Amino acid sequence: MPAFFILREKKPPGNKMTVRGLNMQILRVINNNVISSLDAEKREVVVMGRGIGFQKKAGDTIEDEKIEKVFHLPREHTNQYERLVSDMPYEHIKMAEEIIRYAGKTLNRHLNKNIYITLTDHLNFAVERQKQGVIFQNALLWETKKFYKEEFEIGLKAIELVKEKIGVVLPEDEAGFIALHIVNAEMDGDIKQAGSMPEMIKDMLNIVRYTFGIEIDESTLSYERFVTHLKFFLQRAVQGVCYDNEDPELSESIRKRYTKEYACARKIRDYVRQRIDYVVSEEELTYLTMHIARIIRRDRAER
User: Is the Cα torsion angle 233, 234, 235, 240 positive or negative in sign?
Assistant: First the structure.
C-alpha cells in the first residue's frame, strides 16, 4: 500500500478550489466525478471533481487539478453515500455540497455528516420531481418559516442556487424541506423528529396561550428568547440530554413564586413526554417556568 499524505485545501487565482495531495491513489471509482481514497490517517475519504474518475481504476494516481472537494464520512455512512451518488448527476451532488458548506458557515454550528446523505438524496429527488411536474406540499412550511428563520433563509438560498446552476425553479415548500434537513443535522436526530419540531413548538406556545388566556406578542425579545429556548430544549430532548438540578433551592423558590407558570411548565412537560417519551428534569422545568413568567409579566403589564 503506497503512502498517503495530508490533504490541503487552497483557493488559487479565479477562486476555483482545489485540494492538492501527494501521490494520492484511487481506492474505488464511484462514478466519473466521485472517487474514494485514503487520507494521512488511512481513513477513507470521498473525493469529488468533474471527470476525476473518468476511465480510471483502483490504484491510479489522482490528478490534483481535478480535485474540487475532499471530505470524510463516518464509516457507517460511506458506503451508503457512495451508492446514493453512483448514478446521480454531478451537478446535483455539487449543489448539495455547496448548500451544506454554506449552512455550516452561516450557522457556525456542527452539522451531523449524515446530512451529506439525507440532503443530497432529497435535493436530487426534488429536482427530478420538479422536472416531472410533481409538486409536494409542505404542511409545516408556515411553522418552519416562523420558528427556524435562519435555516429557512438557507433553504431559500438553496433554491436560488438550483435555479442559477441548472435552471430548475423549486417552490418555496422545498426551502422548508431543506431547512428541516439542516435542523435535523444540527440536532443529530432523525428527520421525522426534526419534522415534528415546528409543530411541537407551536403546540407548546399554545399551551401557554390557552393556560393564561393571552395572545403572546411575537415582536418581543421575551418571545424570541422563549422560542429559542424551546428549540434547544427539544434538541436536548431528542438527544436524550437533560440538565442536572444543580441548584434545588432556586428551583424551590421559582416553584413557590410562580405557581401558575410552574403548573404551565408541567403541562409542557406532560406534552413532551407524550410526544417523544422524554422525562423533563426539574432543572428544565425551572427554566421553562422563568421563560413563561417573563412572557406573562409582559402581557399583564400591557393590559
Answer: positive
| Number of other CB atoms surrounding residue 74 within 10 Å | 11
A 10 A CB-CB count for 44 gives 16
Which whole-number Å values give the CA distances from 120 to 52, 127, 300, in the listed order? Answer: 19, 11, 48
Confidence grade of residue 78 (pLDDT, cut at 50, 70, 90) = confident
Query: Which residues face 69 on adjacent strands?
Result: 48
The pTM of this model reads 0.74
Which fold would CATH assign to domain 211-224+235-301? PTS-regulatory domain, PRD (1.10.1790)
According to CATH, the topology of domain 90-186 is PTS-regulatory domain, PRD (1.10.1790)
Among 242, 113, 120, which Cα is nearest to 184's?
113
| 200 contact partners, CB below 8 Å, separation of at least 6 | 234, 271, 272, 275
Given this model, what pLDDT does residue 76 score? 76
- 3 has a pLDDT exceeding 80: no
CA distances from 108 to 37, 64, 198, 255, 256 (A): 28, 29, 21, 36, 39
C-alpha 28/C-alpha 38 separation (Å) is: 10
Give the three-class secondary structure for 117: helix
pLDDT on residue 72:
86
Residue 35, strand partner residues = 29, 47
Residue that has been written with the C-alpha cell 413526554 in this structure: 273
pLDDT digits (tens, 9 = 90+) for 93-147: 999 999 999 999 999 988 988 899 999 999 999 999 999 998 888 988 988 998 9
CA end-to-end span of the chain: 76
Parts of the chain belonging to CATH 1.10.1790.10: 90-186, 211-224+235-301
- The tens digit of pLDDT for each residue in 9-65 reads 434 434 444 444 456 788 999 999 999 998 878 888 899 999 999 999 998 988 888
The topology (CATH level 3) of 8-73 is: Transcription Regulation, Sacy; Chain A (2.30.24)
